[in-house]
Specification:
Length: 108
């Protein structure tokens, strides 16, 4: 089954699954935020430091199961597999223009 994901989130997922660190970071606004189960990382440098251990650096792959566009952005639910954590996860994205302003990760 192929899930239709709107841009820029679709490209973001591709970059994550390709382990493309620079593409991943470039997906965010300069002051973008990652909220990983209540821990917030603001700005590309903080996001990079988090990602080096828990996301791209952990060789994570997201197998998308569903995607929904909401008034607040895009929510993707998928099976996350990495060297750091595994399981069904929800990724809620707030988009500004062609970049991600906020990614919130919770249980899927």
């Amino acid at each position: 089954m192929t899930v239709s994901i709107p841009e820029p989130v679709a490209s973001f997922v591709d970059r994550v699954n390709d382990h493309d660190e620079q593409g991943f970071l470039d997906s965010f606004t300069p002051d973008g935020v990652v909220d990983d189960w209540g821990r917030e990382f603001r700005g590309r440098e903080a996001i990079r430091q988090w990602s080096d251990v828990e996301f791209i650096g952990a060789r994570g792959v997201l197998d998308v199961r569903s995607a929904e566009t909401t008034p607040d952005g895009v929510t993707v639910v998928g099976d996350w597999r990495s060297q750091h954590a595994n399981g069904l996860s929800s990724f809620a994205f707030r988009v500004e223009g062609d970049r991600i302003a906020r990614m919130t990760i919770r249980e899927g």
